[in-house]
Structure formats: C-alpha cells, structure tokens
Design brief:
Elements (H helix, E strand, L loop, with lengths): L2 E2 H7 L10 E2 L1 E3 L9 E4 L12 H6 L4 E5 H6 L8 E4 L2 H16 L2 E6 L4 H12 L5 E3 L9 H6 L8 E5 L7 H9 L3 E4 L13 H14 L5 E5 L3 H5 L7 E6 L6 E9 L3 E8 L2 E7 L4 H15 L5 H9 L9 E4 L5 E4 L6 H11 L8 E6 L8 H14 L4 E5 L4 H9 L7 E4 L2 H11 L5 E5 L7 H8 L9 H5 L2
Parallel strand pairs: 3-4, 4-5, 5-6, 7-9, 7-10, 8-9, 10-11, 11-12, 12-13, 17-21, 18-19, 18-21, 19-20
Antiparallel strand pairs: 1-2, 13-14, 14-15, 16-17
Helix pairs in contact: 5-10, 5-11, 7-8, 12-13, 13-14, 15-16
Length: about 475
C-alpha cells in the first residue's frame, strides 16, 4: 500500500522532514531494495541495517526507519529522510497492522507443523478463481515476513491468505495480533522444533495461540484427523469448521483414487456438496492439504467447479512434492525444502505404492531442531523405511546416521544403506548408482542442502546403465 512518509511517521508516533514523499514499497534487505521503497533498518545477529542507510538512500530509497540513537548521531543533511523510532522491528509490525486495518477486508491465516505452505498456496489458488488475492510469498511467514506481506495490500485486493510460522511460544500470538484474521486454519500438530518445546503438547499450545488471538466472530478451520488440533474447538467462541478423512468431519473425503504418477482423484462431502476433485500431487497428505483449502474456500462461497478447476491446475512450490522425470525412466521426488518426522513418514507412505518402481531409493537428510528426542525420532523413521519397502537408504549429515541404525534394527540389509557427511558426497554416489526405473525420494531439513543432490541427479544422462556394476558392489 502506497503511503506518504508523513502518514507513516504519524502511525509510528514520529516525524519526517520529507512528509510528502510517497513510499511505493517496503524493504528490510538493502540488497533487494528498489527505488521508491521505504527501508526499515533492522538490527540482526549478523548485520545491522543501520550500516546501509546512507547506501540505500543514495540508491533511491525514499526514506529509512531507524532507531532514535542512530537518528541523533546522523548528520543534519540526512535527517529529513529518516523516521526515528525506539524499535524498528516493532515499527515494521505496527505499520503493517495499521495497513491491514485500513484495508479492512477478510484475511485467512494458516499455521501447522506441516503442510501450511502448500495449503496456503492451494487456498490462494482456489480463491483466485473468484477474487483478487494477496498471499504470502516464499517463506515470508515470521515476524518480519508477515508484516512485509501485509504492507503489500492494495485497495484492489479482495482477500488475503497468509502463513504463520513459529519456533517458540508466543510467536503465533504476536503474528495473529498483527494480521487480525477472520479465518484461522490449523493443518496439524507434529514433533517439530522440539529443541524449543518441552513436548508436542507444548507445540499444540503454541499453535492454539492462533485461535486465542483472532478477533471476535472469527472462524476456525481445524484438522479433525489430528487429535490435538481437533481439541482446539473446545472453548473457541467463534464458528468451527473441520476437515479430514474421518467421516465425522464437516468436510471429508468419501473415496480416493488415482496413483502417484497420474495424481489423486478424490470425492469430497461437505455441507450440501458432493463433488469429485483431481490433484496432480501424490500422497494422502496432499489430499488433506487440498481438503483444508476446500473447507476454507467454502467460507467465501466458492463453488465446487471453481475449486476443482484451481486444484486440477495446481502446481507445487519448488522442492515440495516436485516430480522430476529423468532419462531411462528414473523419477525424482524432490521434497527437500524441509523435513520433520511426520513429513518424512508421509512421504515414505507416498513412495511405497509408487507404480512401476524398479527400486525405491531414499536420500534422507538430518531432521533438525528436534532436541533430545532427535535420536529416537530418527530411528523411528528408519524403521518406517523398512515398513514402506525402501530398497536403498542413503542418510546425510549428523543424526541422519540414526536412520540407518533404526532401519538395520528392523532388518534392513547393511549393504543397502550408507551414510554421507555432506549432500555433495551423497549426490555423487547416487549419480553413479542409479539404474533405469529407479524412484528416488530426496528429503531433509533445509540446512542439509539436499537440493544439491537433486541438481547432481538431474545431470544423469544416457550413461545411467553403465553405473549398474558400481551399485552392485555398494
């Protein structure tokens, strides 16, 4: 939303010498700032945005929001372009809340341990069949990303769909108070970020902050299949809509067809509707994400035909359930954007029935931020690999070696599993070991950088068959 710097200063309880200048955008990263944008100087663990204020002003920024101490030490010639505040992150959030209130239309906020990004994308795609939609882009889902998203609201937007992420108690509450959503959805609660929580119940309490901080008269959309998320309805004073495979959910899946190659076909029952949908993404978890999006869209009077059209054409975000077909019939399931125990197990269940797979190969990166539970959770996933008939298991970095330990305990052959310290090592080995017809699942936490494995495997060419002897000796 375009604002005069004088308006911005008034909202922030400050002043600006260039009050008539118009901010055409907002930025916290000096490297990506475009001319005409207002720069917020954020003091972070590695960089202090105040160091770049003069640079961004020289490159066309209309002004900068800075800490009071920086303002007082700045030369007189610089001060007219500065808006001084006590706390620049708080100023960013306060301005975003003010813009959201000025816009004053319906906003959907989605959180959950897994699936929230895909659900957000599906919801935005369905609503876009009828409305002008603003959505969170990329990973703009935290105390910096959410405000930047909200500052992108324009009078022409009919609805906004945002994603809320957290790694500590209190974060969802703060984000909810900034966004003030009329619709709040919870995809699930799972063992994620256990490094910062005492238990999964602690994670559930943090996710519930969404419902506890929404405005009066809001609607909660909850995963009925998740026992913790389902209890969020207790004590909630607004409307509750549920979704899930359980037939008692308000929006439920009546039947499922299709396969991992052609995608999913599923029939949905909800309200007076009974309609069939098609989705190009594999896996039961993606059907559940779609079901959440359908339930949310129903609150906006979107028809089944409109929702069906959007889902049929839906394409996943990069590195989330991406299906890549290589020469010789090799298939890569590129799901390496992030990982946690629930997400890992759902992808293994997707891999298990893959039609026509010669071998099911898993390249599994370490799952991070699991705290003291990490060893047990990694071993549990290793056992799940055996249950899902994985033929080769390659573990990458740190606690991922415990995948192998759990798999071997469940009877997985020693010669069919390996540990690699880096993604590059794993990628080079796999590149030589692949055979025609292999299906490879690549999944791990972002910091493991398993996208490097994907890049190396995409370079596999006509020389694949020559690698068979190397694999037979592994």
């Amino acid at each position: 939303m375009q604002l005069a710097l004088g308006e911005v200063a008034t909202v922030l309880g400050s002043s600006c010498g260039f009050a008539e200048r118009l901010a055409r955008g907002y930025a916290i990263d000096s490297r990506t700032l475009a001319p005409g944008e207002l720069f917020f100087a954020i003091r972070g663990p590695h960089f202090d945005g105040h160091q770049f204020v003069e640079d961004v002003l020289g490159r066309g920024a209309v002004g900068a929001v800075v800490e009071q101490a920086f303002y007082e030490q700045s030369p007189e010639t610089l001060r007219p372009a500065l808006i001084a505040v006590d706390d620049t992150p708080g100023a960013l959030q306060g301005l975003a809340r003010a813009v959201r209130r000025r816009w004053d239309r319906r906003l959907v906020a989605i959180t959950g341990s897994t699936g929230k990004s895909t659900t957000k994308e599906m919801t935005a795609a369905i609503l876009a069949e009828r409305y002008s939609v603003l959505k969170s882009e990329g990973n703009l889902n935290n105390h910096y990303g959410l405000p930047l998203t909200l500052l992108g609201l324009e009078p022409g937007h009919d609805v906004a769909v945002v994603e809320l992420a957290m790694s500590a108690p209190g974060e969802i509450a703060r984000l909810t108070r900034i966004a003030e959503p009329q619709v709040g959805a919870v995809t699930n609660v799972a063992p994620v970020h256990l490094q910062f929580f005492e238990s999964v119940d602690g994670i559930a309490r943090a996710k519930r902050e969404l419902l506890e901080n929404m405005p009066a008269g809001s609607t909660a959309v909850l995963n009925f299949d998740d026992p913790r998320a389902r209890t969020f309805a207790e004590g909630f004073k607004g409307r509750v809509v549920t979704f899930g495979f359980d037939p008692h959910a308000d929006w439920s899946v009546a039947e499922v067809g299709g396969d991992a190659v052609e995608g999913s076909r599923f029939r949905v029952r909800g309200g007076v509707q009974d309609a069939e949908f098609r989705l190009g993404l594999p896996g039961r978890h993606n059907i559940q994400n779609a079901l959440a999006a359908i339930a949310i869209a129903s609150l906006f009077d979107v028809s089944p035909a409109e929702a069906g059209k959007a889902l049929a054409h839906f394409r996943p975000l990069p590195q989330r359930s991406e299906i890549l077909t290589l020469p010789e019939g090799i298939v890569l399931i590129n799901d390496c954007y992030n990982s946690n125990p629930l997400a890992m197990e759902t992808m293994l269940e997707t891999l298990a029935p893959w039609p026509g797979a010669r071998r099911r190969i898993v390249v599994a990166g370490e799952m991070l931020e699991l705290g003291p539970t990490s060893p047990d959770l990694h071993r549990q996933v290793g056992r799940k690999c055996v249950e899902c008939h994985v033929d080769r298991l390659f573990a990458v970095q740190g606690d991922a070696r415990l995948f192998l330990e759990g798999a071997r305990e469940a009877g997985f052959p020693e010669q069919h599993c390996r540990f690699f310290s880096t993604a590059e090592e794993a990628g080079e080995f796999c590149r030589k070991a692949l055979e025609p017809g292999d299906v490879v699942l690549i999944k791990g936490s972002r910091a493991v950088h398993l996208e490097k494995v994907t890049q190396l495997l995409k370079s596999v060419g006509a020389g694949v068959p020559a690698a068979r002897d190397a694999e037979s000796r592994s």
